[in-house]
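hey so i finaly got around to running the thing on Multiple EGF-like-domain protein 3 from Sandaracinus amylolyticus. pasting the sequence first so u can double check i didnt mess up the copy paste, my clipboard has been acting weird all day
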Amino acid sequence: MTREAMPRFVSVLLALLALTACDPDPDPGPGDDPDAGDVGSHDASPGIDAPLPPRPDAGSPVCGDGVKASSEACDDGDVDSGDGCSATCTVEDGYACPTPGEDCVPIATCGDGVRTGGEGCDDRNSDSSDGCSADCVIEAGWVCPIDGVACRAAACGDGIIAGFEECEDGDAPPEGDDGCSADCLFEDGYACETVGAPCVETECGNGMVEGTEPCDDGDNDTGDGCSPLCELEPVCSDGVCTTACGDGVVLPGEPCDDGNTRAGDGCSPTCTIEDGFTCELTEIEPPDELALAVVYRDFRGYDLPATGSVPRGHVDFQNANGTETGIVAAMLGTDRLPVYAKEGVSSATTHGRPAFDQWYHDSSMSMTVVDRIVLARQADGRYVFDDADFFPLDTRGWVDAELEPVRNGGHNFSFTSVVRYWFEYGGDEVLTFRGDDDVWVFINGRLALDLGGVHGPLSGTVTLSARASELGLVAGRIYEVVVFQAERHTSQSSYRLTLSNFTSSRTECAPICGDGIVTRFEACDDGVNDGSYGGCAPGCMALGPRCGDGATQSEQGEQCDDPPNVGGYDGCSPACQLTERCGDGVRQAEHGEQCDDGNDVDTDTCSNACLTNLG
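ok and heres what it spat out for the 3d tokens, dont ask me to read them lol
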């Protein structure tokens, strides 16, 4: 190039560079649109492309698009929480999300109430010793027919205490009437302390609470809270009766009291309503008979001399005659027994307070016998005990010990008795007594009837409404009536007690079918009880079709049902699925299989017995 041409070449080059820099409509590349961030600031003119919206970075993850990015724990194709994959694409507790874009699946765990896989049961908790162990294995002596519901005893008589069973005495089949009933529940009068061993009779009065006894205070007194028959009683003082849970008397503040201290019947040992029950206070349906505890004390007549270690007969028995009122005070003593009122005063038939106090207290002068007196219900609703020849201690007491001869008519005379009863005052109660000898009736601790002395049969009636103020009675409250009697002469003995309209209320409990709680009185309760597969039938008294009923329900996914479904080789699993076996296509050499081709052709190289055919 000549020196003259150089300036001209430089000028052309600069012009080309200027044209390139001033191109009014270059083809923009991605991200080069100057108006990309201001789409709404102007309109596109005809023939001119509109500005493009911003586009996300192709490398940014989007939760909910069904594609699991490296920063996401899951992506099920939506942004809903509660389905296993949260709105932020994290896996929620109790779920697994193995496949992106598809629904997550719950993780089966022992204690979730759903029996899956190798679980033999699942009662919706992780406790053992309730039939379904902490690792969801059925425990010995139990059955667990419904998932998510409490297990129950397999059978009474199997030697294992389970469910609501209280005892197992080794009877197979269970018999009852020996302390452990045919339903494996305690029977009164027995203690069953060792599983598989016979129950033993208890001894009320030894001061030790045994078996079904709610109390045992070791004495023969009534009205002290524990009767001589080891039954709980109310305790009354100064017009107020306090009750103990289990005495059957419901006072304000007690949710229930069904007359016992046993669990599982609706009213607990602490008088609270148990789960699965409803309890109502109701007037007791009049029973056919009213059996009341009675305490007898047998005395020897004063005409009998001392013999050996036995002192002379009691001075107040077989010693004098004549009707005599005023022997006892108008109020009971603090021990709820009559107070002698003739101290220092002439008495025709008694001989001082020390002698009288022995009438209703245990002493060397008497022998105590505890029994029941039974009042029969009449057609008009009254309860009556009537015995014109009242000799309850014949062949008992001193006569049985051969320390007193039988008397007139071959009977045992000379005894006292005490009977107590508690009632809710309503205003129409009437008590009538006819008999001999002494009879005193106290109501609310006050003397209501005085038939004292040694005499033939006398009668007396107490109409409580007519004497309510005198006796301190208020409607709706609980009061005590006590009948003290004494037979003191060997001529005759009669006793007729009539109680009219002496009613009481007691708690009646019943199971609630449909609350999902299985009680002793229900076969099942799943909360629905519609009889569907794996559920409970209406009424809660029977199970619906289920795995374990012995019928294979293939439509429910059962492959087998051969109770007890314990699994094992060639068996049926607890979930009613076939276990490892000849024919499953897997050779189990440990079970003697030489081959397993998974078919039922017996003539091919592998027989139906999973043995190699050599021919």
